């Protein structure tokens, strides 16, 4: 990504935070949403949730060439993560062997994708890569991470591949606190955070716990709400209205619990996020479509719908969802200068970071 001119306030002073910023309080975002192609298309499409299902389905087809399908009549698309993990529990069976074969093939694809990323300038020198997204929240996902890490090391890549520390549902919320300088949040207990994906939207209250640790390492999700919008297929307008109701409900819960909310909403969202808060590209999987319209701006829409939080003007800050999930790892990455993050879900998100010197 090319360097962007820092936004300025009405007095011409550089603003401390901006949508989609490279310069964040603890790190510099070296890159995100890399769109690396080969002759077959975007290489990231080989290592997302759908790609794993396709590989598993292909192994089932091969098995049927010589007899009955070990998994039975259920379609691959109807298998939940828990279903796949249950198959792995039956270690002595063809069911487990079939899933393990898919894990091995998928791991090779992922190792190939990461090897290609690490040839890109923003990823050169990456020492650790954290893996988040919904796929990580399963035994099969954890096995893929471990297997891929071994393949990278066997190929001479000096990099550690790690599962993201927080549960992926929480990482996408906790990371939002790292978009904002700690000094802007002093005197407050928590912020509202939102994680928008191609299948779900989650909103939550993240307690800062700055008195315990000023680096946000003790930040915790206090309450959260989940909406599986893929089941409802809403229009964009209905999506925003429902999101507003989720946030308002959380604000009411915080008030009842006497939690001092900062007037801040931090958002992780797929795509390239422009400095004005619009989505330049990459929002094609978002509910209702047309999120990249020049006539639509999510931060502005939320500020209009929720003009105040705790009697103060609402401030919305938005970044790419893989960046936000990766930011949840800032405290744990204190021992490395350069690290990366990928999120395996509807798509394959990616980001790389350079730690700022103290």
Descriptive account of the structure:
Helix 1 (49-64) packs across helix 3 (94-117) and helix 3 (94-117) packs across helix 4. It is built from 8 helices and 16 strands. The protein is globular. It has a 5-stranded mixed β-sheet with strand order 1-16-15-4-5. A 5-stranded mixed β-sheet has the order 8-7-6-9-14. It has 358 residues and is an alpha/beta fold.
Protein topology:
Elements (H helix, E strand, L loop, with lengths): L26 E6 L4 E2 L2 E2 L6 H16 L16 H9 L4 H24 L10 E5 L6 H16 L5 E4 L4 H7 L15 E7 L4 E7 L12 E8 L8 H21 L4 E9 L2 E2 L5 E3 L16 H8 L2 E2 L2 E2 L1 E6 H7 L10 E7 L3 E8 L3
Parallel strand pairs: 4-5, 4-15, 6-9, 9-14
Antiparallel strand pairs: 1-16, 2-3, 6-7, 7-8, 10-11, 12-13, 15-16
Helix pairs in contact: 1-3, 2-3, 3-4, 5-8
Strand content bin: 15-25%
- Poorly predicted ranges: 1-14
Helix content percent band: 25-40%
Largest sheet: 5 strands, mixed
> Any idea what the shape is?
globular
Mean pLDDT: 91
The SSE string, one letter per element, is: EEEHHHEHEHEEEHEEEHEEEHEE
| Class by alpha and beta content | alpha/beta
Looking at this protein, list some descriptive labels:
alpha/beta
Q: What's a quick, concise take on this entry?
A:
This protein has 358 residues and is α/β, with parallel strands linked by helices.
